[in-house]
Amino acid sequence: NTSGVVGDNLWLWRADHEVPTNAGVTESRNPVSHGLEVNGDDVIMYGLFCEHTLRDLTVWNGENGKTFFYQCELPYDVTQGNFGSLGYAGYVVGAQVARHDVRGAGVYSYFRDHDVHVRSAFKAPEGRVQHTNVFTVFLNGKGCIESVLNGRGQACSMAVQGQPCFL
Prior knowledge:
Layout: E1 6-13, E2 17-18, E3 23-24, E4 36-38, E5 44-51, E6 58-60, E7 65-73, H1 80-84, E8 91-93, E9 100-111, E10 117-118, E11 122-123, E12 129-141, E13 144-145, E14 165-166
Parallel strand pairs: 1-5, 4-6, 5-7, 6-8, 7-9, 8-11, 9-12, 10-13
Antiparallel strand pairs: 2-3, 12-14
């Protein structure tokens, strides 16, 4: 909620395993909604990593934000009903934002437990956000990411496993 913040090398994640057995978390347990929610203006992130949260992983509502290098892995244990059909994405810029810049950003999928289809890895207001070198990758598992940004860009599924799908 503060403006003028600079973040460097932040790894924000929801635990995807349990102690002491290191067993995988299933059925959306260990609830965390977002890895990062930015509501301040003029915020800059260098090396931002958000993983496995149960809603939009990064939510950016502040003006004139910038992210340089973003890595996101969608949650393993969600369902189509509690994630894909609700329209969640890896990086979301709020509809009211007039200026934002994200460079070198990837959203990866490994839907381990259920067949989940995510409409878009990135969501942002058209024409007001600069996206440079953004992509998705299907790592393994089920389902797919249907597009890179707002319904544009190649679908990333088992057919292109391990290969980046660019905007």
